Amino acid sequence: MNLNIKSLPEIAKAGIQVPEYDVKKMQEETVENPIWIHFGAGNIFRGYIARLQDDLLDKGLASKGIIACDTFDDEIIQKIYIPNDNLTLLATLAANKPTSYRVVGSVAQGLVCHQDYKDYKTMEKYFSNPSLQMVSFTITEKGYALKDIKGEYTPLVQDDFANGPSNVKHAMSLVCSLLLCRYKAGKYPIAIVSMDNCSHNGEKLMDSVLTVAKKWLEKGYVDDGFISYLTDETKVSFPWSMIDKITPRPAKEVEEEIEKLGFTNMSPITTARHTYIAPFVNSEVSEYLVIEDKFPNGRPCLEKAGVYFTTRETVNKVETMKVTTCLNPLHTALAVSGCLLGYTSIASEMENEDLVKLIKGIGSEGMKVVVDPGIISPQKFLDEVLYVRLPNKAIPDTPQRIATDTSQKVPVRYGETIKAYLASKELNEGDLKFIPLAIATWCRYLLALNDELQPFELSPDPMTPVLTKIVEPIKESMKYNGELKEILSNTTIFGTDISKLELGKKVEEYFISMLEKDGVKKTIHEVVNA
């Protein structure tokens, strides 16, 4: 069997769930008058967000699907989407249960969103259509960033400022240019929805788009009316959201199972941009999507597919609960310690009593400053993470994947809790021990030497060149002479200068004890059992 529309009857006969609607008809109707465009065509979109619309289509609650586009990696569209008629085979991995399979057919079209591709003219047409209700994003937090580590606009962004809407490269500039098309077509309303796993994601997206627009205003490329359009929430809204579903890299075990089912041409590829992707997506069962209900042109009834629609305040509470306490900081601690200790599976780390004590301690420290959002219980969420999700051996997730872009994650995953302790009258940042231990482990990870003092490859991170240069003298001598202070004092990384805090001193103390062979294992054991 091949994964395409023609093969759907054959796939159904093999006992696999396929769309109950006419996929070809849905695709034709969607491209005629689209309602939803999504930027970021990777696994979290294909394995979760697209499946939500698939649910609505199956239930007869929607007639149109999603236009997927990618600004970063054209091979995702050309080698994964187009050859498979935009279908995805979703493998859901539950603990101690057989894997369930489903074909997701809600993606009507896959496009490459660059101005030098013919697809861009199609994107301009879609953005100019009054039918378009929402544009969503899963481009990772760094996709919104206009500035580098020094707080300066990157050369690419500076070029976009100078060249104007007709000659742009950065994702945020492309979005701004497309919104300009919508403005010129009739000032039609629309919701611009970040679904990325980062704090205040809607605000980040709005700030970046407005920054580009205002720079173009200064240079005469746009008029004041365009700025008024972007800042009028009855015309353009930027809802906040919180998303949570683990969708790891395609696993070899899943690929082999799929081949046994009779599928062909399902092997993953590695693109020139280093994206590892396959026609299938493997994911966990647990999932959460909470969105601020602010859609000036209407929206799909995604609440009937399990999405929570609520206020910005509630979204913020849920997101803070998850990103700063109940999942993400635990994941990061397991990621960097796992790389150092030679683990290749998050689930296997959960068999290490010391690492479990570490992440339970991080959760406990964060729980003291978490505000209950009301719609989801923080303690139940944390318990599900600790006792169901992370130990799930069916999820082929690796520390190496989770360690990607750690420098971009630390400000929220640990920095927000630290700031909350500093602002509290009842709590003392000097009492924290598990969070500084996690930070020290990340600093030790930056040496790119495992606990046996053997070299290993760091996961991709935009700050790697800067950070590794700072710790290079330590790596050469395995002695510490205060080099970490340059990292600990960086407010971009931690949200505050922690080098001056009692917590910062603990980070240095733990780090020093990790420099000897087996020092990571020994230090974690001593701290979590103290």
TrEMBL record:
Does the keyword field hold Metal-binding?
no
Pfam families linked = Mannitol_dh, Mannitol_dh_C
Q: Which UniProt keywords apply?
A: Oxidoreductase
Q: Does the keyword Nucleus apply?
A: no
- Classification via SUPFAM superfamilies: 6-phosphogluconate dehydrogenase C-terminal domain-like, NAD(P)-binding Rossmann-fold domains
Q: Which residues form the Mannitol dehydrogenase C-terminal domain?
A: 315-506
Question: Could you state a single Gene Ontology molecular function term?
Answer: mannitol-1-phosphate 5-dehydrogenase activity
Q: Which reaction equations make up its catalytic activity? A: D-mannitol 1-phosphate + NAD(+) = beta-D-fructose 6-phosphate + NADH + H(+)
Domain Mannitol dehydrogenase N-terminal span(s) in chain numbering: 37-303
What domain of life does the UniProt record list for this protein's source?
A: Bacteria
Q: What is this protein called?
A: Mannitol dehydrogenase family protein
Species this protein is from: Candidatus Scatoplasma merdavium
